[in-house]
Amino acid sequence: MHDLARLVPEPSMMPAGMALPSASSRLPRARFVPRAWSALVAFVIGAALALGAAVTHADTIAIKAAELRIEDGELLLSADFDLVVNATLDDALQNGIPLYFVLDFELTRPRWYWLDEKVAQVSITHRVSYTALTRQYRVSSGLLAQTFNTIEEVQRYVGRVTSRPVASASALSSGARYDAGVRLRLDINQLPKPFQVNALASREWTLASEWHRWSFVP
After folding, report:
1. Whole-angstrom distance between the N-terminal and C-terminal Cα of the chain?
2. Nearest alpha carbon to residue 103 among 165, 206, 186
3. What pLDDT does residue 204 have?
4. Contacts 24+ apart (CB under 8 A), 133-138
């Protein structure tokens, strides 16, 4: 402290018109992060973690079986999914929000010398809606439509694929090995915008199966 005092001249020893530096100018300014900014950063991080958890623990549609066969010159797909429409999705249906379930199928031929050959890629959409006047569910795909009295009937209908043509048999080579894949998912991109936001933050709106893959030799 005595050494520091010797470094600062006495007022009587300073030239006229020259003032001592103030305490604020002699000390470095401390930087403080506003509490509001810290709270905002914490909120964003927490929301990101919650979103990641919601996506990671999304409801899963289990697949029971899947197979391919050739009949009448066509490659036919059959699959059975254990689809369960939870209470949140059923409430949305009964409040006039349609749901879109998409069946994705792909067939590739492995090639050691180049990228795999994509033989077939098919997406089939089922639009599910509810009519309050008749108290019935309606499932439509393309020009076809069917009505059901209960959500359990809808689940069985959408989750079961029977002899669905997915490619021409002429596109396949006899004795060659092909890799097939199929999945069923709720397409949140076709929901109204406010519900798309809910779907990103809630596992109840994220419903999909894993890709089920197997080999097929015609």
Report:
1. 93
2. 186
3. 82
4. 137/93
- The pLDDT tens digits of the residues spanning 44-93 come to 344 444 444 434 445 789 999 999 999 999 999 999 999 999 999 999 99
User: Are 139 and 146 contacting, i.e. CB atoms less than 8 angstroms apart?
Assistant: yes
Delimit the domains of the chain by residue range: 49-216
Q: Which residues contact 189 (CB under 8 A, 6 or more apart)?
A: 196
Burial (0-12, 13-18, 19+ Cβ within 10 Å), 190: middle
DSSP character for 32?
Answer: -
Q: Check residue 172 and report its DSSP letter.
A: S
pLDDT band at 177 (very low <50, low <70, confident <90, very high): very high
Indicate the helix (H) or strand (E) that contains 36: helix 35-56
Separation CA 60–CA 71 (nearest Å) = 32
- pTM of the predicted model as reported, rounded to 2 decimal places: 0.71
Of the candidates 75, 107, 102, 125, the residue with the CA atom closest to the CA atom of residue 184: 102
